[in-house]
Amino acid sequence: MTILKYYDEMNKLVGQIKAKYNDGREIDFSSAADKVVELIQKQASQGKKLMFIGNGGSAAISSHMAIDFWRNGEIKATAFTDAPYLTCISNDFGYEQVYAKPVEVFAEPGDVLVAISSSGKSQNILNGAQAARQKGCLIITLSGFALDNPLFMIGDLNFYVPSSTYSQVEVIHHTICHYILELILDRKGK
Question: 169-178: per-residue pLDDT in tens?
Fold first, then answer.
């Protein structure tokens, strides 16, 4: 594969991103990104925070974006991805609860959870999202693989990348997060 073919495939996938509300109504990607920006800015203006969760490459995206949102966007943001923390929670409560437990403790009504899972089937991510919903948080999801994955159905706004290749889904999830942050920075005049 050539570099141009690689980026051509990625560009095609970006054009096929699906987005929808939690009631199932579809929304075009650009409008969904604008809605997420509005949601984050509104909640941040009220002192609410962003929380990111993900496994593997999605955990790396979560950590990276939490830093960028607070450093560049001046929005309170965190990711529950610290290795000692993950092993402690996993050992004490099981890996399925690794994100639900901190969300139960740290989330406040009106906070925003960004749940990232390539497959959209990771039970710990689904449990984290469920805990966020119970705490009165707003939820943004990013998933891929099968269109009927459970994560794509539970957020207030949901993004789906139509690929079953981890690298493609992860790269596009990362760019979606960066795009949202860039829109926020543009609106702040930065």
Answer: 999 999 999 9
Position 93 scores a pLDDT of 96
* pLDDT at 190 (0 to 100): 81
CATH number, residue 68: 3.40.50.10490
pLDDT digits (tens, 9 = 90+) for 102-127: 999 999 999 999 999 999 999 999 99
- Cβ neighbours, 10 Å, residue 88: 13
| Max Cα distance, the chain (Å) | 48
pLDDT at 132 over 90: yes
For 128, the domain range is: 3-187
- Tokens coding 94: 């099981």
Number of domains making up the chain: 1
